[in-house]
Design brief:
Shape: globular
Distance between the termini: 40 Å
Number of helices: 0
Strand content: over 45%
Radius of gyration: 13 Å
Structural class: mainly beta
Order of helices and strands: EEEEEEEEEEE
Largest sheet: 7 strands, mixed
Helix content: under 10%
């Protein structure tokens, strides 16, 4: 059974930082493209960042220079380091794993507010 479990969300002030983690099980982690989407209230789910099995990264324009995605294949975990957070980053962040099938985590809420 495939499981993706996100952690690290919470409440942070504007300008602050958070690090999200997503632990995967039930897949050959190193073979998958991993990434993060977010969904703000009333909006569609949007890609935030992705990292291929070869380590190539891709970011939404809105987070370039502020967010960094990385992966640790030994720990079956993908990370999203979020710096200089803005109120518009407030959303539920979902981890995904993609190869021939896409798997999703249940999400973790990030709230950026003073």
């Amino acid at each position: 059974q495939v499981q993706l479990v996100e952690s690290g969300g919470g409440l942070v002030q504007p300008g602050g930082s958070l690090r999200l983690s997503c632990a995967a099980s039930g897949i050959i982690f190193s073979a998958y493209t991993m990434g993060w989407y977010h969904q703000a209230p009333g909006k569609e789910r949007e890609l935030v960042a992705a990292i291929t099995r070869g380590g190539t990264t891709n970011y939404a324009d809105s987070v370039k220079g502020r967010f960094t995605i990385s992966r640790d294949n030994a720990k079956n975990t993908v990370y999203l380091q979020m710096n200089s957070l803005k109120p518009e980053d407030t959303a539920v962040y979902y981890c995904y794993a993609d190869r021939f099938t896409t798997y999703w985590g249940k999400g973790t809420l990030v709230t950026v507010s003073s």
